[in-house]
């Protein structure tokens, strides 16, 4: 049984991918296991909120799109990590108390 991820968990995964240097769209999509349509929706949200910026690589013939995390995106990623880790910790304590 697979667990469904929240939108915030997906945001964290994508921002972490770009932050760690994995900034090519196809690789990001595969590593986060998202369908292309959903991936594009989430990326447009992150770009419109100014958490990511698209950087065009003019050195290649195809002018490939790559992404970079903005300063606002870095702050949001830090906040997401803290918030989601707190939620995970609370769920773990509740699980331990229920057994």
SSE topology sketch:
Layout lengths: L6 H13 L5 H8 L3 H13 L3 E5 L8 E5 L1 H28 L1
Antiparallel strand pairs: 1-2
Characterization of the model:
With 99 residues, the protein is mostly helical. The protein has one domain (7-98): Winged helix-like DNA-binding domain superfamily/Winged helix DNA-binding domain (Arc Repressor Mutant, subunit A, Orthogonal Bundle). It has helices at 7-19, 25-32, 36-48, 71-98, and strands spanning 52-56, 65-69. It has a two-stranded antiparallel sheet with strand order 1-2. Strand 1 and strand 2 (65-69) form a beta hairpin. Helix 1 crosses helix 4. The radius of gyration is 16 Å and the shape is elongated. The two termini are 21 Å apart.
The value of Rg in angstroms is: 16 Å
**Weakly predicted, low-confidence segments:** none
CATH topology: Arc Repressor Mutant, subunit A
- Whole-number average pLDDT? 83
Reading the helices and strands in chain order gives HHHEEH
Report strand order across the widest sheet: 1-2
Distance between the termini: 21 Å
Instruction: State the shape.
Output: elongated
Characterize the biggest β-sheet: 2 strands, antiparallel
Task: Report the β-strand fraction as a percent range.
Answer: 5-15%
Helix content: 55-70%
What is the top-level CATH class? Mainly Alpha
Annotation field: number of helices = 4
Give the structural class. mainly alpha
- CATH homologous superfamily identity: Winged helix-like DNA-binding domain superfamily/Winged helix DNA-binding domain
